[in-house]
């Protein structure tokens, strides 16, 4: 098979580029992680499924991957203006709990979702508050040349570096009204690097600094952790598309100041060679939110009887740069597709893994490699997987090897998943799986005895409890909850 070069869309150049690692044979990736003030919604999790597919692809291509995902437990404000409240402080006050307890609870909830979606563990989860000293050092290093102090904190002067806002394609001269709320700023887009605790107030989280007691600005943490853990310039920086507008341009500005590099004509001067952004998961009613309407957490999907990997499948069916609209019908379709694949894979589970380089599978393997190398086209890659599963009259072990190899990238856990595991009882169901199975067995026995009255009565009583008996289902499912 010919080696297909990996092409990735770089948001900084707005072009698809061939991936060339900074350090030969290695891939160093930084992903902006969650702010742990609340549960992640499934839109947030799309960002990590995307980053996971990227990481898996790099590993699959043979690069030695170092992936960092941070946990933001300080500094992220409720709005992009520097006058908002810290999200963590606000939630802690609302819940009358310590920030540390809030952070612990929601970090663990996030990790549970990561696990359920079969997202691989990064090399490190870097927690922002573990890097406060480094953040202060970083700020000290750039303060003289690039920052100025106001009563409310230390601000970064975006006019001191070249090409500010290139990532967002923002026009700074006209100003960005959304950030221009702090009196005394030199440029509308200037942002806080250090926020001083206002006189007479105490915050749960505050540290001493040359600019007074306070807390770091959100953008600072990612510059500091990315640089420290991966070294500037590293290969790829990822996040959701909203970060393309403010968070990442500001991170880039800090990196330019810190590394004393020039303009962004050279992508590396930004601190990373490639900046990648996933598009949003949206609801028909508009943007997904943690406050409006039904809060779409992964647990809600599970409570309604959908296996979390059905949501992963839903993400894979769309290109990461396309907006994806969430609907329950779409999720159901993704689950059905996953069931079909799992059923075919179950037949391969007893096979010993063979040699995948069999010529019968060459077209599917080529198609898969070409798709995934084409800016992570997972939807076409999925089709290649299904085509490989459909190949007839072939050694099962060879097929197993081909499918396993593809799933290393897609991460659907196809050889761990079972048909039973995919059938989740909705929380609202009145009957347990064990009870259903017992009734199904009793019905089978009645049918063997030709006691159709009993068999019909069991079917009716199950139907009354929301269980549909599916005789002759092509997928081999005997029942489903409706
Ligand atoms: P946050 O915890 O708010 O910092 O967000 C975590 C990640 O989710 C960031 O990379 C965001 O850009 C991303 N994100 C937020 N909303 C969505 C959405 N609806 N769809 C996809 N990604 C999102
Ligand atoms: Zn970040």
Automatic annotation (TrEMBL):
Cofactor(s) listed: Zn(2+)
Cofactor detail note: Binds 1 zinc ion per subunit.
Motif ('HIGH' region): 34-44
Chief location: cytoplasm
Subcellular locations according to the entry: Cytoplasm
GO molecular function terms attached to this record: cysteine-tRNA ligase activity
Motif placement: 'KMSKS' region: 287-291
Record's catalysed reaction(s): tRNA(Cys) + L-cysteine + ATP = L-cysteinyl-tRNA(Cys) + AMP + diphosphate
Organism, scientific name: Qipengyuania polymorpha
Residues that, per the record, bind ATP: 290
Entries under PANTHER family matching the protein: CYSTEINE--TRNA LIGASE, CYTOPLASMIC, CYSTEINYL-TRNA SYNTHETASE
Residues of the tRNA synthetases class I catalytic domain: 19-334
Keywords assigned by UniProt, alphabetized: Aminoacyl-tRNA synthetase, ATP-binding, Cytoplasm, Ligase, Metal-binding, Nucleotide-binding, Protein biosynthesis, Zinc
Chain sites annotated for binding Zn(2+): 32, 222, 247, 251
Protein name (database record): Cysteine--tRNA ligase
Enzyme Commission (EC) number: 6.1.1.16
Subunit structure: Monomer.
InterPro entries: Cys-tRNA-ligase, Cys-tRNA/MSH_ligase, Rossmann-like_a/b/a_fold, tRNA-synt_1_cat_dom, tRNAsynth_Ia_anticodon-bd
Pfam families: tRNA-synt_1e
Family: Belongs to the class-I aminoacyl-tRNA synthetase family.
Source organism, top-level taxon: Bacteria
